[in-house]
Amino acid sequence: MKKFFTVLGGMGTLATESYVRLLDQRTPTQSDQDYLDYIVVNHATVPDRTAWILDHSKPSPVEPLLEDVKQQSLLHPEFFVLICNTAHYSYKTLQAATEIPILNMLQSTVDAIKTIKPGAKRVGLLGTYGTLASGIYDSYITNAGYTEVKPNEELKELTEDLIYHDIKEKGRSDGKKYHELIRRMTEEMNCDIVILGCTELSFAEEMDPETEYPVADSQSIIVDRSLELGLKMQKGKA
Fold it and tell me: Residue 84 catalytic?
């Protein structure tokens, strides 16, 4: 392949499958040849990002991800897609290792809020403990002029339960838990919109979409960005 992009995935695998499924579903096609050319690196054994962020004595995900970036760069993809919000903790380190652009999921997600919920002021953020504690979304949200709202401890625990217990461990989502999280962030925390800052939450959204309250689904948004660039690439305009 001469015109393709590389998906850095496996964090987790179900979320990566969700990304690929949405990408293919949204690609305008009339034949097999209309789909985009891409490589999926499903690096499922990358150490847990949250565990390492909270305790740097734990196994680091950075070296395995750097290895993926360097290996794939030898193949000259047009761009990379990093399918993990928490892994963006190391975004600058990974981007410094290659001249090939890595799409920034966090920036794209915050940029999309003005379209999803015009006039939004209070932006809620759901994600792993690693994403919340590291503050990786903070500057993107505040620089865009929004007030960031993080969940209280109870909602953090409920989010972790859905992400790790239901999706990562059992391989399924719990729609009731997911919708209750969105409802409470909107009603109790007074959020105008809620960012799904974890691709497992995006998987939950795909399985049982939220219809009552607005969400900024990071994975869905990066799928659209990938598709936009991928179609330009396919037409030789990238």
Answer: yes
